[in-house]
Specification:
With 94 residues, this protein is mainly α. The chain has a domain of 52 residues: Orthogonal Bundle (Arc Repressor Mutant, subunit A). Helix content is 51%, strand content 12%. It has a 3-stranded antiparallel β-sheet. Helix 2 packs across helix 3. The longest helix has 20 residues. The N and C termini lie far apart (46 Å).
């Protein structure tokens, strides 16, 4: 299915501005996430689609930095994002 959009009487700058506004609206829910938010192991596991034990293993291996408050373990959202960027597949390491 093809959709044809015809734009008339818009300058290049106006068109770019409209496109930028649309992109900002679509990305707003992702930007609203608090980078300083502290998540429990269970919340991280649900977000990544793995079980709690996997998160505990990542913490033990040093892949995912965590900290304790009392007996509970927490992980900063920014640390999760950073860890996901740095993950390297062992399959391709020599």
């Amino acid at each position: 299915m093809r959709k044809i959009l015809q734009v008339e009487e818009l300058t290049k700058q106006e068109l770019l501005s409209h496109i930028g506004d649309i992109i900002d609206k679509k990305l707003a829910p992702f930007a609203a996430i608090n980078k300083d938010e502290k998540l429990s192991v269970k919340e991280v596991a649900e977000e990544l689609g793995v079980v709690d034990l996997t998160i505990h293993n990542y913490i033990k291996k040093g892949i995912l930095p965590a900290f304790k408050i009392g007996r509970r373990v927490f992980i900063n959202r920014s640390d999760i994002d950073q860890a996901l960027k740095e993950v390297k597949s062992l399959k391709y390491q020599r």
